[in-house]
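Progress note, project year one: complex with magnesium ion.
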Amino acid sequence: MQIKTAEFVVSNQDVSKCPINQLSEYAFIGRSNVGKSSLINMLTNQKSLAKTSGRPGKTQLINHFLINKEWFLVDLPGYGYARVSKSAKKTFQKFITAYFRERKQLVSAFVLVDIRHEPQAVDLAFMQWLGEHGIPFSIIFTKADKLRPKAIEAHIESYKKKLLEFWEEMPNYFITSSTNYSGKDDLLNYIDGVNNEIKNETSQLPFQ
Ligand code: GTP
Ligand code: MG
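Model obtained:
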């Protein structure tokens, strides 16, 4: 799939104020600074559609980006950022949780993890929480440009091993770099496939 148009639509802290329509959406979530906003820019071929920063805690709202006028990419604040105040953390946690629990248009979450790091408790706990709430997700390993291919392989293997302590199978995963564009086609083709599946299911309903 090619992304032809990508437009910022709305930002807010309130899931009830997210766009009202039935378009499918895919949300990027993960620790602060993992590269959620950068990946949105990479996928959409835009430098600063989503705001990025070297300092964690940049994205503070639920941001909807309309893609090809057909579906949404959603950029969310990071979790696990130690340097924001306790009350800010609580606010983030509340609206992020509400977003995942209530947003019916959410087709799948993408949990981003930095490929250089060992599995982090906060990520594993978040995946567990998604599982308990029946929210489908894939993992996106980010910043693959920082490791050599052999090291990438080793990190993926050890991540898999850890996840298989909790999950019966390894969730779907992608290896990406926003710097060298790796993983872009795989990820966009995957989303395209899911969008098409949804279209086919809808067209087969007895009542339209
Ligand atoms: P918050 O909004 O704070 O939660 O962060 P985020 O997850 O949106 O991260 P963001 O995209 O702002 O990127 C954080 C930093 O990582 C920036 O300095 C980016 O340039 C850098 N970065 C993001 N993706 C990559 C990547 O694939 N490779 C490299 N080398 N750096 C990256
Ligand atoms: Mg961000």
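Helices lie at 36-44, 86-102, 121-132, 149-163, 184-203.
The radius of gyration is 17 Å.
No further modelling is planned for this target in the current period.
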